[in-house]
């Protein structure tokens, strides 16, 4: 049976990184519904992220997205974060919103566009140097919409060349996390459409290149925990972009669409050493809060990851291994389900109280007055968003 | 064997309606890439649509979208269309871009929002009266993103109530076309997610309510031609929103992703009387041209529908029926494939030449100087787009 | 807040019907792995079903499948059931295993084959008269594998004609439950592929025709609870064929692939009156136990339905309605998740103990010696299976 | 523009391998419909395959499946093939039909079962030595049905160990082709579910291990031609298992469900050197003919591959490259579509006539009397099938 003290320690030690863009406005191609109190600057985003950390205790890191979080002085931004108990996490590049990227960025047929894109990626590493971030997270929107539009193999060649240049620029303690995505915004081919493509490129790049699993970026029915387990076995799981989906890349709150899947993923993570700090798996959120209140949604998402992790840690791995080895299908499944069916909210409340936090972060935030304050204060200026 | 004269007559008589918004800018949630020469007003959109009709000869109708095509004087807009050999087609409502529609429109929990939405729909019927349009096309973005967010049944009740009010307002020669969509922009429930829901509501409304099939609005793997055949059998197929997709609602050019599927759809249409004018099936395009040139893309799409229709008309229905009746699976399939594998482009070129058109509409448009002209002239102002 | 006494009463009163074929051998097209102790006769299947009922207390009904459960004397079979505290439930027809059904049954192009199929359906009603069963459950494997193979509309006509004849034969207290299925064994068209098709036919037949929702018979991503809610609103939900799936019609134990989905379904059932006996929704299992022990798998499945139902009954519907009405997305979702995250196993153990049952049915069955007994006794003869 | 003489030469030189099991009975889990005239022995399967080759001229190779094609003397079988103008192709292993494989074969938790499975694979290499086959095609049905049933990573370890042992046994001119499959018969995890997993294992094994792409083994919406292009770029495409599907692994005739996809695949093959003999890509069929006549279905399938190949060879690659390089989306797509829309049947008829074949293989076979002969002669005995 799991040792509750160890479970508690693991849960207290877990770190969940929140994305700066989760605090800004977002939407679909049909409409972005603005919300009141939304940050206007990267500094205000950090203010909001600090609230999430204040009430959950496990979310000190904040991912940035360049150029959405472009500032004059990144060291100052990092200091601002530090003053609020935060640190700056992964730097996310953006090679999909410049007008020149209509047909791609690092895979574009025109070398000048590729140069521009690679320069942006190199700039992101510069920013990492300034912020102390260790992770460069690369998601490429590159792809094509129509059969014949461009050459699949040529685009792979261009991709490999760009990645090699960026990889060479990384410092000793920096790594490159390569994300894959099934489709969108490209609708025929995507240049990094699946984990296999990302893995193959990372393998060639070297040990500082790893795969990022965005839980919303797969074909229907894909068994994500298999991929997670496989990548952990290969030492190639760099981290997660957590969110959830019913259909495509819906970017809903992690754990809201299929909490059992999230548990199964965290079970593979826990079982295969992915919670150990030395494995260096980044647990990041990457979500949109199109219609729900943003800060509470991030808090809730952090809690959902915690609950899935708690259940994963409660799996009786000895009993599981025994049932598996004996070929007792129902018994093995039952061991897993016993953990999943456990209500871990009391345990998490207990942990929070032991560390001086309110047991219910959502209620505590609601009672804190922060939302009222930002609604009143953040008037005028331009609300942060995707800048699309 | 099909009678070629009859095939030619059917192809010459086919009418394909193009959407005003297909001439404007569009994109994904990540980026809208603006194009040069894009119309700034509904009048300029009609100018572009007139080009499509001039070179294809089968696209005299143009769908409008309110409020994207809002003008002071709709009769004047209709006259402007008429002067260019066009007529105004379906009026498309928009109940998804007002800030009050964040949680829905006609299904919103708040009666005031529902009132606003219904009033907009009634306004669309007013516009139909002014333009002479016979079709009110309703697509509702309504739905929810999270389990529990709202009550599924209550929302159906509200939907039924709104539809009934709008239906009652229709004139004798007007009809209501109810579109369904699998998902997006709502990510958990959609209030009209499938043909069954649309059909059930149309059935209760009466004979002036019919279902619209958007070819991009289905679950993966859905057999669309089955739905088309079923609705034709029930007299409930009002029309098509044509486009194509590899993944979700990609809104690519019709026929570009799965031309065989488009042929199968047109085969059911042709076989079940759907090409007869009295069946009143509207063949409308509803697409985005995010990265390709817009007017040529619309021309190409019209041609793709023509080619699929031509192949469908070439099916030897007697041989097909005989093979089907005798249970000869391969022979029956072969009859269908023979028509599909025929290159119908020469036939269509011949028809065009017989009616005084250039045989290759794409080349003819390219040589017409129109694109250069609008690129030069349409400078300044605000380019049309989705207004999201 | 839910009234616990009422919750307990509802749970005690719930009835879950188990399928006779769940106790026999099953498999995939690749292999059927036989298990020891499997019943050889319908009587032995009832013996096993009686075990499930003995340990769960909520599974007194057993569905039959004709011809797999063909016996000389159905009244005797019913009496045998009654002696064991059971009753015979839905009669399931089989129009897919006769050699003449290669191209369909009630939709076959050949009238003689259709006659044979309809006669079988009428025979099933005769059996219902003998067994006292009230439900005729119809699933048609009919469809085509290749485009052009047969005429979609003609097949609908044949289907309608067959259904009308069977419907006319029903007694006053009998009903026809029409199942739909996305695909398999037909791979191009299926003649009843979705709820819309089933609903449209049932509507024309009359009030004794209702739709059956098999939870494994949908396109990827389909929102099943929407369909459930819609059908309940229309009075057209006849019942469920419960099972679960990750990919296609996997026929795994209900609740094992997506327990949250099962909860959402039961939430719609509970909220919309579907648990009330007068609504007459049949909660049936329809599963395969290809690799796991069969009786324990059925017990586990019954428990999974109970757990989902318990959670659904614990939803604070007043708080939910209030949050929904106020448009508080996160609060509404939280009310639902609170119920889902509750560990209801203690409550169900309590209910069992109050009704004289062992708190843990799986353990109680394992300790009962039944499995050892049937393994020893059921030697020789031909094990029951699908007879494919 | 493509050189027609070169196109003809390429088409004449193409070799399409047919599967022995395509001539036997097959079906779904619901029913296997037996056909008349079906072979009873591997020798009779070769007789049928010889007919396919006689009328198409491009299908001299026949894949075997062990144990379905087990004979006493494999050299005699090879000689029998040679006498009929055939040669024996890939040897397909079967580790899914022994009773001991219920929970897997090379990934089974029990080392004894794994030993048995590996021994079977080694036996297959022995058979290759006897038949002169160069390809060992491995498809593993291994996987699990329920979360927790077995350990994902442990199973990968066992898989890697088994593959290494088999790889070490290969002769200099032999290779191991590792197939992947999304799901079925396992319904939760599959041990080689996607190309990435197969690729990763092949990479570790060495240059004699390559990936096989079965066109029916992907998640919905997967872009197969991307995978093909990627593997060709990496030198890791060993071959194809051709068939087609609308839903899951439907195993319909190749090219019957989505002929445009087949063309796109062959375009990537042709463009990236995959038709060159030295690339050694095996073009194999792997299909079921559940309801259609088997030999004509195989002929038709061979022709479908030829037609897709012909269209691919007709792509004007220079014009395509120019349009791609200039970023003209519509022009590039049009170049591809021009080739696809060409009716290549006259060209293929011409090639056949030039090589002394009848222009229409289906009609020629129908008129040959073979079907009547085997129907009359192959009476009694046990028809070949999957042996499930």
From TrEMBL, chains A, B, C, D:
The keyword Metal-binding applies. It comes from the Bacteria. One of its GO terms (molecular function) is metal ion binding. The keyword Manganese applies. It holds the Pfam family AP_endonuc_2. Keywords: Isomerase, Manganese, Metal-binding. InterPro entries: L-rhamnose_isomerase, Rhamnose_iso-rel, Xyl_isomerase-like_sf, Xyl_isomerase-like_TIM-brl. One of its GO terms (biological process) is L-lyxose metabolic process. Residues 54-267 form the Xylose isomerase-like TIM barrel domain. NCBIfam families: RhaI_grampos. This is L-rhamnose isomerase. It comes from Streptomyces populi.
